[in-house]
Amino acid sequence: MPSFLFSFRAPRDYAPTADTRADWNGFFQGLSPHLEDIGNPIFSRQSVGETGGATVLGGYTLINAGSLEEARELAAGCPLVTRGGGVEIGEITPLSEMPGATRAGSQTTTA
Asked: Mind listing the pLDDT tens digit for each residue in 61-99?
């Protein structure tokens, strides 16, 4: 089953409260059959290049799902969606599946 990265985007002025903690707990309980790595929040951040303006990186989670559409449906329950933020979703593609890719640290020699 494919793996997907949820990149949580929080409004710049987002401040969690006791209510939002309960919302996040409920969100992660709903994801539990799909969780690969519950992830972590991000509090200190910097960026390089264009990364958007209205939101900042707030955290990440790794899940598995049958399709990008299923992953999107799972992300729709994220508490940030109703608080001015959102979730970027990307299917993780192992380098070994990319044409011409080599594994990190491996070297090919020719004689």
From this structure: 999 999 999 999 999 999 999 999 999 999 999 888 777
Q: What whole-number distance in Å separates Cα of residue 84 and Cα of residue 8? A: 11
Rounded distance between C-alpha atoms, residue 92 and residue 18, angstroms: 33
CB 12 within 8 A of CB 69: no
Pairing of strands 3-11, 35-41: unpaired
Q: What is the pTM of this model?
A: 0.82
> Phi, psi (5° rounding) for residue 109?
-115, 150
**Cα dihedral: 35, 37, 3, 97 (round 10):** -150
Residue with tokens 């004689």: 111
| Number of domains present in the structure of the chain | 1
Confirm whether 106 is domain-assigned: no
